[in-house]
Amino acid sequence: MTNLIWVVLLVLVPLVHGALDSKGKRFIITFMENKILNNTDYKPEIFITTASTNLVHVNVTSPKSQHPQINAQFTVTRGIVHRVVVDQDFRLNQTELSTKGILISADEEVVVYGVNRELWSDDGYLALPTDVLGKEYYTVSYSPSYYYCEFAVIGVHNHTRVHIKLPNHPNITVHFRGHVYHENQWINVTINRFSTLEINSVGDLTGTHIISSKPVGVISGNKKTIVGHGKSRDHLTEMLLPVQAWGKNFATVPIPDRHVGDNFRFVASKDNTHVSVSGVIDGKPFTDNFVIQHAGGYVQKHYSSKLYSHVNSDQPMAVYQFSVTQTSHTDQADPSLITIPPIEQYAADYTFTTPQYSQGQYHNYFMFVVDSNQTAGLILDGKSLPQSQTYVHIPGTNLAAGYVNITAGTHSVSHLNPNTVIGGILFGKAGLESYGFPVGLLTQPVNSGCQAKAMTPGDEVDNDCDGEVDEEDCDGKDNDSDGKIDEDCSGAPLIVIGRK
Questions:
Q1: Tens-place pLDDT, residues 151-191
Q2: Which of 236, 51, 257 is nearest to 145 (CA)?
Q3: Whole-number Å distance between alpha carbons of 128 and 2
Q4: 89: helix, coil or strand?
């Protein structure tokens, strides 16, 4: 098989040493609902590895859950991956507020992946450490949902106020604590550390706006769904980047060895976001231009399995790639949800590991992007890529992208030039199953700049640049103790469900 490398007029951002990224010492994660088949309930899994050559001591615990309980201690070092099997009762169920947060702590930086596996229904996500989480998110799912769209909010700090605005899509019905919520309505709740709030709905939840008083984690996707026109279904899950880490430039690589194309969702953080897609299909130029009208809105596109592209927007956005349902036994793969890392968030090196297939092993691929003048310096597992690697150029770009087949297990990728950054995605496929997620990325707050603005109650803007959104209650009082009254308020007294 010939491996393609794609070449994308952009200058890659040099790595900022000491920058915030997806490696860390502390994580709090959870698992969303998945579909159980044949009364055989597979257990979720956590995969942990490190780039360190030292022995790294790791603890995995369930601080707020005693029955069942997680209490695992082990060590990892470079080239070693440890798998923690999690009791099925830690998986969230429909719409629920619980305390199923799983704490992972280490004495040096580690990389963590959550894999939510059932029979013929599997996907995984790159976990983000707690120190890079944010206070604003827009969710992503796929529709039609088949079963449910879903997302989960993870508490990292006590007394965190979370405000969830459901998107303007039909058939949204959320039952929570005796209330029924529909499109465009707010769900307000206070959560604590290790709290886990899952929301699900048959209607499309893409573009649900989550704002919180303190950083939270958010996981999003589908219980199990069809993507495209086949018959088989799969679980979708990703841990989302906060809006402050969204970018304006992306490079896309098609799912390897497929011919049915890929689906993409482009989600905007601001109104009237203009998007340009430019690339090549079998050497022929390809362009597509469109506008996303509203913050939280999205445009969905189906592109060729031979398209390598550069995506540019005038406002920060998120780009998600969906592998589509297999249509025959000769095209073994299934739906998965992949966050496309912004070029602004590429890092210089990664250590990653492949999950396990429910029926054996996946066929695994490492999909990557790098400066086209620096391809010779790529190092995978301590070795240069083979000279037989071929390249496909895209007019007006200076990136190279492609994929290589990799074996099951732990891998590392870096560059001889430590200032050359790389974008990387791990994808695996098998009969009726697949998974996909970025192998790592920076999480710099590239969109966190704030300029104080005149306030309109409930405008969802940080009007006083204090890092909180609409935190005042519009009641004539100084609710946030900053010496100002109603300078950034919600427009109506908050109705908070749960503890206040």
A1: 999 999 999 999 999 999 999 999 999 999 999 999 999 99
A2: 236
A3: 34
A4: helix
